[in-house]
Structure prediction request, 485 residues.
Amino acid sequence: MRTRSEANRLITTIVVVVTMGALAFGYDTGVIAGALPFMQLPIAQGGLGLTPLTEGLVTSALVLGAAFGSLVCGMMADRFGRRDSLMALSVLFVIGAIGTAQAPSVAVMIAMRAVLGFAVGGASALVPMFISEMAPAGRRGRLVSQNEMMIVTGQLVAYTLNAGLAHFSESPSIWRTMLMIAAVPAVLLGVGLFFVPRSPRWLASQGRTDEARHVLELIRSTDQQVRHEMRAIYTAVDDDAEQIGWHQAFREVWVRRLLMLGIGLGFATQFTGVNAFMYFTPIILRQTGLGTEAALIATIGDGLVAVGATFAGIWMIGRFPRRVTLLGGLGGVVLAHLGLGATLLLLKGSAVESYVALGFILLALLFIQMMVSPLYWLLMSELFPMRARGVLTGLSVSSQWIFNATVAFLFPIFLHAIGPGTFFVFATINVLSFCFVARFLPETKGFSLEKLEAHLKEHFSPDTAASEEPVDPAPLRIDRQADVT
Prediction:
């Protein structure tokens, strides 16, 4: 049995290695903003001769690939395991990075962006799931939230490198270097996973309980913790033994309701407008009269706020209930959208319009990245039952990517058609999201994964949902005392 410090160091190492997938996710979604202007150049001048149509195809190929990848990789994770599926994704990340960097034509670029998207989508589903199954209950919230931190860090690195490479390089082919850099975190992920154990919960679900116990002995610091966690895992595996496969789970009302909750949370997260701001901040600000170069610099501000807000979000997750944090974030987003819409409507042509508008954009991103996005990925890692966690997470995250594409497609159309009214539409949608979360999301903080599964089954079963008794908090306090470091 390891000491507490040794177990903590191993858990930290596991999180750092696995979140290389999230870093690659963030970089690949952010790098295209700086590469596109160079790719628009004619082929003879080092670009790909992108037209508005092919530019849209190159951009959207990643998002659509991600929707497919998260679904497929969720099923792969249940069959082949979380770690081995991530190893396969690291290979796809490298292939996609090299393929996009060396693409000789638009068709190859679109195909390679789709490959990258598949890897991005798979990582978005598997990374938080894997961390949640390795983490002690008392540290699960903060450790899983490292996933969101690495995503926004990857985006900030992409924005910063884009600006630096474009400023210091005179080569019109510099976009190829921008895209090639995406291979670095992918290689670190693939190599690092050879030194990371498999998920003990997945091992137990495959009947490999001795291996599961051995992994727990590596990542827990006392025999009592290992025995307690193994008993819970044994119980969950025995309860699931009656199920023939994941498709059987959908026959249960409570599982279907959980899936609908997961899909609804993806809708709520994307319709905060997070990616409308991350993709289109320069376009919004140019409509206020701000110059192109200043608008591009403001995009780096988006990245800086996202990283700082995620740091704050990780601190909050360890101290406040999940429901309270998410509801507070959605309420703040409503106010930010109302303020932005009012600014563009009432201050149009004013000397301060650009700065006030930027302030409300950054305020919206503050609430989203501090109190909404980290909570979404955390909930995706802990809501679903073990026997079908991969496929249910994959379906939910895949839906989130579809909502992402929907917002990215509709936002510029709405902005052109109704202008400031776009942000009042967002505010209305977020009020509805607030009501949805308040009505349907139960609290998940403080439970082990196995106890949480039992609690959610009771909460969402049709014969108990209306008047369920509160869960006895005593065993939850014992779990936290055993696991908190």
Observations:
- The two ends are 16 Å apart (CA to CA).
- The chain has 22 helices and no strands.
